[in-house]
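Hi there, hope your week has been kind to you so far. Thanks so much in advance, here it is.
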Amino acid sequence: FLSDTDLEIEACAVDSEMNVLICGASSMGEDSTWIPCIRVVKTDSFGHLIWERCFVGWSANFEPTMRIVELPDGEMMVAFVDYWPALTTPTLLRLSANGDSLSSYQFPLPLDWFSQRGQFALDQEGVLHFMAFEYEMGAQNPEDRLHWIQFATNSEIIAEIFSYTDASGLIYAAPMQDGMLAAGIVWETGVSNTDLLVARAAPSGDWQYVAQIEMPSHQSLRGIFPASDSAYALFGTYSGDESLSDPAIYFIGDDGPGTYIYSVTPHLDFGVVPLDETGSITVQLHLTGDTSAIITDFTIAENYATSLHLPDTIYSDVPFEFLIGFRPTERRIYVDTLRIFSAATNSELIIPMRGQAPFPVLTLDSELLDFHWVHLGDSALEQFNLYNTGTDTLFVQEFNEHPPFYLDSVGPFIILAGDSFDLQFTFHPSEMGLYEHWLRFESNDPEELDSVRLLGRCVSPNDAEDVPEIPRDFKLHSAYPNPFNSTTTLRFDLPRAFHVKLTLYNLAGQEVAVLLDSPMYAGAHTVSLNSEALASGLYFAHLVAGENVATQKLVLLK
């Protein structure tokens, strides 16, 4: 059948009467006006159109993120990740049997979290499952987070679970009677083939195993579904030559490709432990399958100790517990790993560990304090805050003033952990010109010295053209052109000076480029984005200026 608008088909299903349900991302409008919407189409089994609906105000990325399912009462539920205007929000849209909108539900993510795929399934018990794998944009060591929501057909939430894993690459998930199955692919730089990644989570969200299955060729996945009571299937493509691919189905045993040891607590965080004192955590290990495995060895970093004795045996039906102790000797953060070696299929289990001794951290309002301009003979006042974001008392030494920048107090200062101190700066120049000075703060913060750049300009009272116009509000303007095929320009306004970072992310939440990372004056600014090294697709420009955050969707068409 023909649709009167463009339609990116992203999901389909068959209802109880053998009609076909199709949904996808679409748009409405004329000329340059583009209004995103979700479009749902119902046809009979021969492809004859029964009805077509468009729901304006929703937007989905152009990947297979949507799911549509028929509920027991004949109603339908569409699940997708809303990408409009910029943030990613898992969304459920409930429709009547005739396709009319009944209700919608959204689960907003914190700022900087990006949801790659939203999936939807109805299990044999009539429980609806909404699953999405999420990532924190800009994180130095990003973790995958499974966002798993279970609710009844009346939309009442039964449970909402967040489960973290270091195994980046999980994409698809499917509910089982006693847990969750997940799968993905492992990409390695410089390696042409892609291995499969399979995992299983308990009803609590704890990962029972995450395993990599080596493959001799190039794979891509498009979904996962239970195949029987003891196995599940992955479907996608298989290619010995990356230029050609064939449809493929991979069958995986429900217990994974072997017997796996996993930790109920995937991370050990000891928090803040005073110097020369000891903090401890109980580690509990479990084993999949119905057998046993011998723990043969372990490695642990200095400043840690364990009650684990070797060799020891772990059984599938008995939790295995031991203690880990942490004793810091320096004022710093400790990031280490516990490695456990065994005869299980995953012969090496890695458990990240983190702890710290108390120490102060000096955090400044900004790296730039801009007084803009003053007339000769006048003064400008600016407040500047010092924060102690550490866990011990901060001592800031006395510092010298540098005219024409003056302080209401030159110190020394004592700032308790979690507290702040307000400084009052005065800019009072005696001559016209541009003034600049770096003020350094010396303290007992064990990290490197902090400093702030002081800027000010003195102009003549009679020279009105010398006075720049300052925006009132922070704003990221719409990029132009967008969509674009070579270059586009991003414009943003700063009402005051900030350290500004403008980062470009792809659809998977991966950092593609840092377009800007430096202190910026108050005013209007532009940044050009050249697409020469980029592939066609959807991107996100993420702007951070102090506490101000803005994200904009960019579409590159080559």
The CA atoms of residues 277 and 327 lie 6 Å apart. The chain has a mean pLDDT of 79. The two ends are 29 Å apart (CA to CA). The first strand starts at residue 7 and ends at 14.
